[in-house]
Amino acid sequence: xxxxxxxxxxxxxxxxxxxxxxxxxxxxxxxxxxxxxxxxxxxxxxxxxxxxxxxxxxxxxxxxxxxxxxxxxxxxxxxxxxxxxxxxxxxxxxxxxxxxxxxxxxxxxxxxxxxxxxxxxxxxxxxxxxxxxxxxxxxxxxxxxxxxxxxxxxxxxxxxxxxxxxxxxxxxxxxxxxxxxxxxxxxxxxxxxxxxxxxxxxxxxxxxxxxxxxxxxxxxxxxxxxxxxxxxxxxxxxxxxxxxxxxxxxxxxxxxxxxxxxxxxxxxxxxxxxxxxxxxxxxxxxxxxxxxxxxxxxxxxxxxxxxxxxxxxxxxxxxxxxxxxxxxxxxxxxxxxxxxxxxxxxxxxxxxxxxxxxxxxxxxxxxxxxxxxxxxxxxxxxxxxxxxxxxxxxxxxxxxxxxxxxxxxxxxxxxxxxxxxxxxxxxxxxxxxxxxxxxxxxxxxxxxxxxxxxxxxxxxxxxxxxxxxxxxxxxxxxxxxxxxxxxxxxxxxxxxxxxxxxxxxxxxxxxxxxxxxxxxxxxxxxxxxxxxxxxxxxxxxxxxxxxxxxxxxxxxxxx
Length: 559
Fold this sequence. Notes:
The protein is an alpha+beta fold. It has helices at 13-21, 25-47, 50-67, 77-93, 105-110, 122-130, 134-138, 144-160, 166-176, 182-189, 193-224, 248-257, 272-278, 302-311, 331-345, 410-425, 441-450, 457-482, 485-516, 528-558; strands spanning 232-234, 286-288, 315-320, 350-353, 360-367, 372-376, 383-385, 399-405, 436-438. It folds into four domains: 3-92, Rna Polymerase Sigma Factor, Chain: A (Orthogonal Bundle), CATH 1.10.1740; 162-229, Arc Repressor Mutant, subunit A, CATH 1.10.10; 230-261 and 315-405, no CATH class; 283-288 and 409-558, no CATH class. The termini are far apart. Pfam families: Sigma70_r2 (PF04542), Sigma70_r4_2 (PF08281).
């Protein structure tokens, strides 16, 4: 059906969706135009910032376009689209409040502080100064020194604006230098206010990238001028893990251990179950009290948890970043490059978050001449451009190396692991956000959410797969402990064997839940009988894990 034969604006949502699914872009555009204002309001409720909200809407529109074909019930388009907006907003807000460590322009304008180091981005700080009231700026005109400094600052910013096209520069200049409101700019440029917001947001990103490229060039030039520095290091590829694994951090640890030359243990012999067990990852669960989302599995303090877990494997890990969002102009990114280069020069790979997808990946080489990293992970890509670090998912910066090996006894490793497992499951670990509940109590939240009809099917199916996979490793880990009588003695091994039985039952029950809510479609949750079965299965899992945890407490008391 051609555009010319249909008045799209008179069609219903269902008709537009049906046409959009056939590939008619104009139908999708009409659908989004019809709901864009509402989408912006949904996003703004989370961000309290128009530019960040606009960014979220833009990204949500892309996701809606990509996954419109997966919408089972056309009449539920509005709640489906709102869920996309919500998940996209939560991705931005996952750590650290409305903006994390990123401060969008309007946030700087509205919340200007005397503490300059809070902004994280020099260019944004400078721009915030230009966005103050005219009367405040006019007060400086009688001071020659301040006039000169202001001129130098203006020149610096204008040099950064060369990356913008004529339209973007016109709007950017009108807003930050001439202090027109977006509504005034809309009238002046004969464009909509929403388009002004979009252009300002896009311009901000371009300027950040321009500054980052400048900083990266300077850093690489300094490396090239140092005769001691290498320009290329690629560590030999190691064998991969081919079993099912949803915890990409543990997968990266398994690969990283193969490069270790620890004199105190044999890391290359570590199994995935041992890594998942000793780091506590096999026993984790955190659920958002408000709704199920895709970030629950990783919603915890990475630096603290991973560092403690790796100590149980005999490594004092080193890391940079704390998993919070940073602007690409942050100096921390250049520190991250230096950390990666130095670690690889020492023969160790580096674990990095979100370099390609929202997964952990392993960087095992670099090439400064080509500006490429060599990477390994749950994707086909083998190299990645330097310029991608700090973009998209990677803006939640977290980089870790195994660090320094140190001697650890089998008893100390198990004691450390069980302490982490019990603290987490009893809710004493401390959550990064008050909405998240951890450990055994999280099952009660999950059950409550499951009783609702409006859960996110993808997020729910993902959570089930993640949890069932980790509990299988929990069972395997405890089984391996039960077999090590020479290290732990008969009493510990007998108790570990008893606990393993309960985690095996939990894993098997979660597998049944997995078949009820298959990934990624999520099953038929709208059916009351399906919900009832799901709730019953979760109650059984909780009971099994509580009994297993009680035995693990006895193990710890006997260590």
